[in-house]
# Entry
Amino acid sequence: MSSVSNPLSGKVVIVTGASSGIGRATARTLAVAGAEVVLAARSRAPLEALAQELGPRTVAVTCDVTSGRDVADLVERAVEHFGRIDVLFANAGVYIPGPAQEGDPDAWAHLVDVNVTGVMRCVRAVLPHMIARGSGDVVVTSSISGHQAIPWEPVYSASKHAVQAFVHGVRRQVAPHGVRVGSIAPGMVANELWGEMDAERIDRHVRERSALRSEDVADIVLFMLTRPPHVAIRDLVVLPHAQDL
# Structure
């Protein structure tokens, strides 16, 4: 097939949080676009099922992004299996809403370790490979909550603000090395992270324009990754049409 129908042909992509939601949808979308995909998540069974679905150009690696050893192993496995890393989609994340006075600080610490430090670990692990080759793309899943503080999810908002600051700083550091870094910031997405797993409920949200599908976000990740080398998308905010933020 042509490079137009396979715009990521031969590209090696690591997707974290690939066992569900945006990560799973993006892995499928990028595989269809010709990418060789390294699927990473903590949950082994759904990861293996997705790898089997996507075929021989994928490999599944159980990885907890809060573990430096796991992240190092993930990158080593990607390089051993495919020879290089072209793209990191740093997508793994957890969500905790609720009033601060009722929250569990230990749960908040775990959220920060996944949403912030986990992103940092993964980016740190892939950058030497990309810089050495003089090219690469890093896309991080942020949130509209990283652009404004949402009152019903202050801790989650804080984590995504930290992600935004990290992305912007690293982007400027590595631009001279041919590496692009950007973030995608969705609004409400009807998927497992927000407790939405029923197909009829998801369809209703979409009809009402109150939520996106995971596949909508995946399409935008593909768009970001297929821009010409001279085009860098720093931030891309995408909201369901009826979301008033």
Summary: The domain at 12-238 is CATH 3.40.50.720 (Rossmann fold).
